[in-house]
Design goal:
The protein is an all-alpha fold. It contains 22 helices and two strands. It is elongated and about 115 Å long.
């Protein structure tokens, strides 16, 4: 049972990559590196699946022949695709012919291996591969200058040199980049310990070290060694899955210059729970404002102003509401809750929502309606309905001042009442007079 479980773990990276293919499609398809990342994930899906089959002890050698052909193509493609992603992030380059020169390596290796496999035949190759795995590469002396020897040279020896060469070139490039850009391991430590900002491309370099090291290590190992040390393949599968996860998450931030650990936690904040909508939107707005240039902020200001002005609200219109909210008599039931309650009632003017209820307020403040009711009673010495109507009437008075010719129905709807009749009744109950009479009295003052 435990052995079968270990075999299943060999395909954990394939499942991880398949999941990210679907998730990136839903979440990251508007990012500039989306196509390249998806191509990389498809290539890794081929590689991890073929590698998982290759690592299964006692697997049919004919399956091994075909799975190795897939590996010969997919493994050398990993480094070029990652390089294309970094090139897009750093320079924003479009894909040109020169970007695909590296792909000549896997293509030539694959075509040669396919040609030799077709020439020899999978049935004839199966016992040859089984013999090598059982007795080691010492038996290759018996196959020199034969098609079997050429097959092994292209699909194993030259293949490993090609992958190793790609990794060495990539390492040399990354070391030069790290020195030039002052990439330090201390930055990564501060990022996790102190939530310090780190350059995204620097974070991605650290992330790639683990999977790249294990790809090289795994390619160098022989099948014979893997069969007798299954834990090596399982460890490789686990670390590869972690590397795939970290790489894809970091790619969602690839257009940012720097990122903190707190910001990284908000990668899924667009998929927020309705109960925390308010705080999450505030975080999103703060992040977006920080990333915006002057032109974007000016356009945003105009849009926000239009939305606020749609209710015909000017700052001076809120003076009486501010007095009611911030100069309340009595002891607050909960200072923290009261502050948040005042904030949403003033900033968002929830009292203008005709269907506003205690439950709506409670959900916004992540508490229950009984607590909100007690807060209003203890702070304002009135029940919630009376408090709500008082805010609306106070707002209506300001609206009437600014729109003396407005009809009663218009005033009612603008102030959060469902109808002109209910507005008139509540206005008279609170002020002792009708809206029209109140306006005449106000004009004399």
């Amino acid at each position: 049972m435990s052995f079968n479980f270990l075999i299943l773990l060999l395909f954990l990276p394939s499942a991880s990559v398949l999941g990210w293919l679907l998730l990136n499609r839903l979440v990251a398809r508007r990012t500039s590196t989306y196509i390249l990342v998806q191509l990389l994930m498809l290539d890794l899906l081929l590689f991890f699946t073929a590698d998982g089959l290759y690592s299964v002890p006692g697997i049919n050698t004919r399956i091994l022949v075909y799975s190795h052909l897939v590996t010969v193509f997919s493994a050398p493609c990993v480094i070029p695709l990652i390089w294309l992603i970094f090139d897009r992030v750093r320079y924003g380059n479009r894909l040109g012919f020169t970007h695909f020169i590296w792909l000549l390596i896997p293509v030539s290796l694959t075509l040669s291996s396919i040609s030799l496999t077709d020439t020899i035949g999978a049935e004839q190759l199966s016992p040859f591969i089984a013999n090598i795995h059982a007795n080691g590469t010492e038996i290759l002396d018996n196959y020199r200058r034969t098609t079997f020897g050429h097959y092994y040279a292209w699909s194993h020896t030259i293949f490993r040199f090609a992958v190793g060469g790609e990794l060495l070139v990539a390492v040399a490039y990354l070391v030069g980049y790290a020195i030039k850009q002052d990439v330090r391991f201390r930055h990564l430590i501060d990022h996790f310990r102190k939530d310090a900002p780190i350059r995204v491309i620097e974070l991605q370099l650290f992330i790639l070290i683990i999977p790249a090291s294990f790809v090289l290590f795994k390619v160098i190992l022989s099948k014979q060694y893997i069969d007798t040390h299954l834990w090596v393949s399982v460890l490789f599968a686990a670390l590869s899955s972690i590397g795939v996860f970290l790489f894809n998450v970091s790619e969602w931030f690839s257009q940012r210059k720097t990122i903190t650990r707190t910001q990284a936690k908000h990668v899924m904040m667009y998929n927020y729970n309705p109960d925390i909508k308010g705080p999450i939107i505030e975080i999103m707005l703060e992040e977006l404002i920080g990333e915006s240039d002057a032109d974007i902020l000016l356009r945003l200001r105009d849009k926000v102003k239009d939305r606020l002005d749609s209710g015909e609200i000017a700052p001076k219109d809120m003076n009486a509401v501010k007095d009611l909210l911030f100069n309340a008599q009595g002891n607050a039931w909960d200072d923290s809750l009261l502050t948040r309650f005042r904030s949403i009632m003033l900033s968002e003017q929830l009292f203008l929502k005709p269907s506003l209820s205690l439950q709506d307020i409670a959900e916004r403040l992540h508490t229950n309606k009984t607590y909100i009711s007690k807060l209003v009673n203890n702070t304002y010495n009135m029940g919630f309905p009376e408090f709500l109507n008082t805010l609306r009437v106070d707002y209506a008075q300001q609206y009437i001042r600014n729109h003396p010719n407005a009809k009663q129905e218009e005033i009612a709807l603008a102030s959060g009442f469902l109808s002109a009749s209910s507005f008139n009744n509540i206005f008279r109950k609170i002020t002792g007079t009708t809206p029209k009479t109140w306006l005449l009295t106000a004009d004399r003052r």
